[in-house]
Amino acid sequence: MVIAIDGPAGAGKSSVARAVARELGFTYLDSGAMYRCVALAALERGLAPAEVAPDVKIELGERVLLDGRDVTDAIRIPAVTEAASRIAADPDVRRAMVARQRELLGSGDWVAEGRDIGTVVAPQAELKLFLTASPEQRAKRRAAELGADPGTVLAEQTLRDERDTTRAHSPLEPAPGAVVLDTTELALGEVVQRVTELAYPQRP
Ligand code: CDP
Q1: Which residue of 81, 97, 119, 144 has the lowest C-beta tally within 10 Å?
Q2: Ligand 1 pocket: which of 105, 115, 117 to mutate (most atoms <8 Å of CB)?
Q3: Residues contacting 156, CB < 8 A, separation 6+
């Protein structure tokens, strides 16, 4: 079974996806970490992202490994976040990442999160969710996570939202049939409960 969770930055996708995966015993797929790895590799090697995308080795889990090196923290720095958002508009990069993601999701039980999981990567997913929240609330959450200034985070987030929603290839939008959840006023536990209920309506 695949649960697809899409939505903009700071809507709570990662926390929700991780918690739901733990609760249901599914594997968590952070597709954004893959775009971040390609961005980091391209920056470090001074190569075009489309050149590095097909052959970088990316291992996802507790820690994120890029060609065997632990880049869990390195891929979260602002310069890489910014670059990831830019390179994610490149159709060649997307093609390479989508192929890898589809291969992973081909067997087993997954909670996969990103921008295009329900629309492109796994339109066959049994459950599709689109998490949103007000831009201010999203920036506040992300700023608290990063220990950064909410105003600065909001400005960067607005730019990334704009890129994600207006790009020609796989723009961020709810998949047909996706359940749209506004998490502005919801605590993490409430969202997790809602999602597990949607996945298993009969569960006690
Ligand atoms: O954590 P946050 O939501 O801020 O970002 P992320 O999920 O780690 O993704 C980093 C960047 O990769 C985003 O800004 C998107 O532009 C891009 N991305 C994408 O285009 N498609 C995905 N399935 C996942 C991420």
Answers
A1: 144
A2: 115
A3: 78, 81, 82
